[in-house]
Amino acid sequence: MLSIKNLSASIYGKPIIKGLSLEVNAGEVHAIMGPNGSGKSTLASVIAGRETFDVDEGEISYMGKNLFDLPAEVRAREGIFMGFQYPVEIPGVSIANFMRTAINEKRKYLGLDPLTGAEFLKLMEEKKKMVDIQSKLTNRSVNEGFSGGEKKKNEIFQMAMLEPRLAILDETDSGLDIDALKVVANGVNKLRRKDNATVVITHYQRLLDYIVPDFVHVLYDGRIIKSGDKSLALELEEKGYDWVKKETA
Amino acid sequence: MENESNKILEEVTGSEYKYGFYTDIEMDQAPPGLTEDTIRFISAKKKEPDFMLEFRLKAFRHWQTLKEPEWAHVKYPRIKYQDLIYYSAPRKQPKYDSLDEVDPELLETFEKLGIPLDEQKALAGVAVDAVMDSVSVGSTFKKTLEEHGVIFCSFSEALQKHPELIKKHMGSVVPYRDNFFAALNSAVFSDGSFAYIPKGVRCPLELSTYFRINAANTGQFERTLIVAEEGSYVSYMEGCTAPVRDENQLHAAIVEIIAHKDAEVKYSTVQNWWPGDKEGKGGVYNFVTKRGICEGENAKISWTQVETGSAVTWKYPSLVLKGDNSAGEFYSVAVTNNMQQADTGTKMIHLGKNTRSTIISKGISAGRSNNSYRGLVKTTRNAENARNFSQCDSLLLGDQCGAHTFPYLDVGNRSSIVEHEATTSKISEDQLFYCMQRGIDMEGAIGLIVNGYAKEVLSKLPMEFAVEAQKLLSISLEGSVG
Predict the structure, then answer these.
(1) Which of B428, B440, B456 sits opposite A102 (nearest CB)?
(2) Residue B126 pLDDT > 50, yes or no?
(3) Which is it for strands B191-197 and B370-379: parallel, antiparallel or unpaired?
(4) Where are the beta strands (DSSP E) in B57-121?
(5) Scanning every residue of chain A, which has its alpha carbon at the shortest distance from the alpha carbon of B452?
């Protein structure tokens, strides 16, 4: 589904990603772990198409298409979803209105008729139940005045609404208490299907107690320096990042 | 056609004024230029009562002594008042019994403009009095209104049928001496709307009037008068669209609102005059005087406006809070894009005790436009415990536009409280990317963010107007970010 080959990316001339390769197939859950500043969030941003980052080298193909040919909004319509580490506030725009616009843009791109008001409301109710989100949340403005937990739950709700093929969750667990963490993890697990894939970017092993990854990658200084199965995460937790650094040095 | 108007021009300019001279001329336009004869022509054409002609002539004589004001934060080429045409009427002028009899071409135009002249809209509870180039062509739901004693008709009709009401109220809020454009309007106004809500009546329908500039080079001088008697209520909506133009068109309207004791008037406008092209060529000059007076105790008037159009907008819907405990509100969204210029705001004049006013102004500037808020809050010595709250927000798109705020406060007694808050913000790259990551393109994202920003004001509009206004905001900002 997603194939990253020898990717290098920088911001304002400063190299962040330095020759990274990664393969993600349908049905898989990948966890990318790494210390602060290793390039985790940059990787997510580059895949999502944020223009503040420059791609200096390498290629990314997604569903057989060159990702760099597609602007950010088209990548989204093609099924790439990014869960933001710091979801931004959009005052005065209700989540319902925001989602309806997004879904209908995607449907237009796919040549489908827009959802009617009734259809949309039905879908929204369904997804709210699915990811266990309070009903009144969707009447509020996007992220405005939300607690950290509410913001992240809102990201998962949007993910449920948009039914992405490839979801990249950028430190979705940061700043969450255990209950919120469960809600988020539960949402991700429920949305998991054979035909979609999830990349979970995280700092801590904690989230992986609830979202069990098929693969764990350690990102350090812009490169993946070690990959393994879920046991790698536990080992990391126990021994720290220095252990991998030393081992691969 | 050209010959004909030349001939008329010669006749008008070359001959002495003779009473009755105009009555047998089947002319649908006044010749360009402005003299006392033009004014007599307009008045005769409209078969106006004598007092009206006198009013016009007084205004004209006063106007001749005035200079065009220059204090607004706008620039535009000098208007050649002698080149403008001051009266034009649609070609056919029969009296209609039903819409079927209306010129189908005209109906089609209205259709394109989305003007709800048809039965469907009427069922939605909207009585429409459409003004097309100054002459009213149709009114719906008149009967329902008549049953309640509400008068809602064109200004010309009101002059024929209710001259005493016009004579009593016209010019009482905006006297012809008020300012340059008010004097000009008072001299040459073509038509407009009149609404009268009798004592204790809650107007059963939202009153709406759509204005549209049609003929080239026709200055539009509309006049609206709304009188709400004691304990009455009315919601009045006005919307404008204008087709593409090469030459600037002057629009200098007057709106007067009078609310008596315990009466409430809600006045909403969505204004979308042709703003000119990207270089600022063409477009309408909108120099309007709008003012309301809360005459009696507990009266309330609110202005809600969404301004997206005009090359140059210059207007300050204002309120005089004369009655004790009366209240005034001003909610405004003004969008400027490309080379548009807007200098708009309000004046709240507190005269009575315990009077309250609220001002919420949301400016949105894009392109190389300039958007200014100019507001005056004045409390006089007698306006004990007067309260005002003002909030003026500016949103900038890009780095070549300008937002300016000119608040004037004039507090005349110790017990009044006047608050002013102002913010300036930009649409952040984070917000845009967040929207785009959800599949919404740049323009869609801007539309969404801007509508969210303006929501506080948009929510004050009547429902169907709000939907239209939201679309308009997005459309107005198309192409504003590269």
Answers:
(1) B440
(2) no
(3) unpaired
(4) none
(5) A92
Residues with Cβ within 8 Å of residue B30, at least 6 apart in sequence: B38, B41, B42, B45, B85, B86, B87, B88
Closest-CA distance, B444 to chain A, in angstroms, reads: 9
Of B444, B449, B454, the CB nearest to A90: B449
pLDDT given for residue A5 in this prediction: 96
Please tell me what DSSP assigns to residue A114: P
Q: Which residues of B touch A156 (CB under 8 A)?
A: none
How close B433 gets to chain A, by Cα (Å)? Answer: 7
Instruction: Indicate yes or no: CB of B438 within 8 angstroms of CB of A52.
Output: no
Kindly give the residue spans of alpha helices, DSSP state H, lying in B192-304: none
Q: Which residues of B69-81 are buried (b: 16+ CB within 10 A; e: fewer)?
A: eeebbbebeebeb
By C-alpha distance, which of B169, B176, B164 is closest to B57?
Answer: B176
Q: Report the pLDDT value the prediction gives residue B143, as an integer from 0 to 100.
A: 72
Quick check: B299 contacting A, CB < 8 Å? no
Question: Scanning every residue of chain B, which has its alpha carbon at the shortest distance from the alpha carbon of A98?
Answer: B448
Q: Domain holding A111: CATH number?
A: 3.40.50.300
Question: Long-range contacts of range B168-173, CB-CB < 8 Å, 24 or more positions apart?
Answer: B169/B225, B169/B227, B169/B256, B169/B258, B170/B55, B170/B223, B170/B225, B170/B256, B171/B55, B171/B256, B172/B256, B172/B258, B172/B293, B173/B256, B173/B257, B173/B258, B173/B291, B173/B292, B173/B293, B173/B320
Torsion of CA B208, B214, B217, B221, to 10 degrees: -20
- ∠ CA(B431), CA(B432), CA(B435), 5° rounding? 90
Instruction: State the Cα–Cα distance between residues B283 and B243, nearest whole angstrom.
Output: 9
Confidence at B358, pLDDT banded by 50, 70, 90:
very high
Q: Specify the pLDDT at position A76.
A: 97
Across the beta sheet with B387-396, the strand order is: B135-139, B126-132, B206-212, B233-241, B264-272, B300-307, B327-336, B356-365, B387-396, B417-426
Q: Which residue has the higher pLDDT, B103 or B173?
A: B173
Those residues whose C-beta lies under 8 Å from the C-beta of residue B185, and which sit 6 or more positions away, are B221, B223, B252, B253, B254, B289
Task: Give the pLDDT score at B212.
Answer: 43
Q: How many domains are there within chain A?
A: 1
For residue A86, what is the nearest residue in chain B, using CA coordinates?
B430
Residue B325's H or E segment, with its range, is none
Does the pLDDT value for residue B75 go beyond 60?
A: yes
Q: What is the pLDDT of residue B5?
A: 46
Both tokens assigned to A83: 């869960």
**How many other CB atoms are found less than 10 A from the CB of residue A148?**
14
Instruction: Give the side-chain half-sphere CA count within 13 A for A192.
Output: 20
pTM value is 0.79
Q: Is the ipTM of this complex over 0.90?
A: yes
What's residue A227's pLDDT?
93
For A34-119, where are the E strands, in sequence order? 54-62, 65-66, 80-83, 90-94
Q: What is the per-residue pLDDT across B77-92, written as a single tens digit (0 to 9) for each?
A: 888 888 887 876 644 4
Nearest chain B residue (CA) to A164: B438
Q: Which domain holds residue A121?
A: 2-248
Between positions 418 and 477 of B, the ones with CB within 8 A of A are 428-431, 433-442, 444, 448-449, 451-456
| Domain boundaries of chain B, sorted by first residue | 2-476
A39, two tokens: 């390039």
Q: How far, in Å, CA of B361 to CA of B421, rounded?
A: 10
Question: Is A97 within 8 Å of B448 when comparing Cβ atoms?
Answer: yes
Q: Which of A9-13, A24-28, B24-28, B263-267 has the lowest mean pLDDT?
A: B24-28
